[in-house]
Amino acid sequence: MKIQRNGQAQVLNEEQFQELMSVFSPSDKLLFGICYYTSCRISEALQLRKEDIIGDRLMFRASTTKNKRTREVKISSKLAVLILDIGLPKAGYLFPSRDGKTHKSRQAADLALRKACDYIGLRGFSTHSFRRSSLTKMYRAGVPLPLLQKRSGHASIANLALYLDIDRDEVDAAGELL
Fold first, then answer.
1. Residue 109 belongs to what domain range?
2. N or C: which end of the chain has fewer CB within 10 A?
3. Total structural domains in the chain?
4. CA atoms within 13 A on the CB side of 151
5. Is residue 109 part of a domain?
6. What is the pLDDT of residue 171?
7. Could you tell me if residue 157 is inside a domain?
8. CATH number, domain containing residue 106
9. Is residue 7 part of a domain?
10. Sequential DSSP letters for the chain
């Protein structure tokens, strides 16, 4: 569990995700929806610009990704609904700062999440929970690790594996396959 920025971010179950989404502002709902539905990092989502939406894809530019490689992710039907419901700016950052000169800060996004978590009584979650949750959910649904790695932009499967929430029952059940 993550406490005071220490430890690993908790994985959201579907009910927790929906509850958080219901209390976010429209802008934060879109921001964290992008993090969840594309498995991206918060810093990648915050730096998205209107121009990074190309047809049915979101492009995460090399200059904004941790590994400095451009990555494209298809906009899922659930994310498309969020985009339509909330709307987008005509140009510039999807999540502009208050002064409009740059993008919203990670600290501002973190504060919005902490306020929402406090409001509904969730503990141990961080902005990284959305990335971990989406990758864990796809892994549990049987998506192969190389596909998850391609989607998330992890440099290695070993790094990706650190994100996945694998419980003891799953480990025990794996042994029964032998």
1. 14-175
2. C
3. 1
4. 22
5. yes
6. 65
7. yes
8. 1.10.443.10
9. no
10. --BTTBSPPPPPPHHHHHHHHHHS-HHHHHHHHHHHHHT--HHHHHT-BGGGEETTEEEE-GGGSTTS--EEEE--HHHHHHHHHH---SSSBSSB-TTSSSBPPHHHHHHHHHHHHHHHT--S--THHHHHHHHHHHHHTT--HHHHHHHHT-S-HHHHHTTS---HHHHHHHHTT-
Closest alpha carbon to 27 in 107, 133, 113: 113
CB 50 within 8 A of CB 94: yes
Q: Exposed, middle or buried, 160 (CB in 10 Å: 0-12/13-18/19+)? A: buried
pLDDT at 6: 53
What is d(CA 39, CA 23) in angstroms, rounded to the nearest whole number? 21
In the numeric block, the tokens 């929970």 are attached to 129
Is 8 within the bounds of a domain?
A: no
Instruction: Average pLDDT across each block of 10 residues of the chain; the chain has 178 residues. List them in order.
Output: 60 96 96 96 96 95 90 96 91 91 94 97 93 93 92 88 77 74
Instruction: Give just the sign of the alpha carbon dihedral 58, 159, 69, 47.
Output: positive
Contact call for residues 39 and 134 (beta carbons, < 8 A) = yes
Q: Dig out the tokens for 131 from the structure.
A: 């990335």
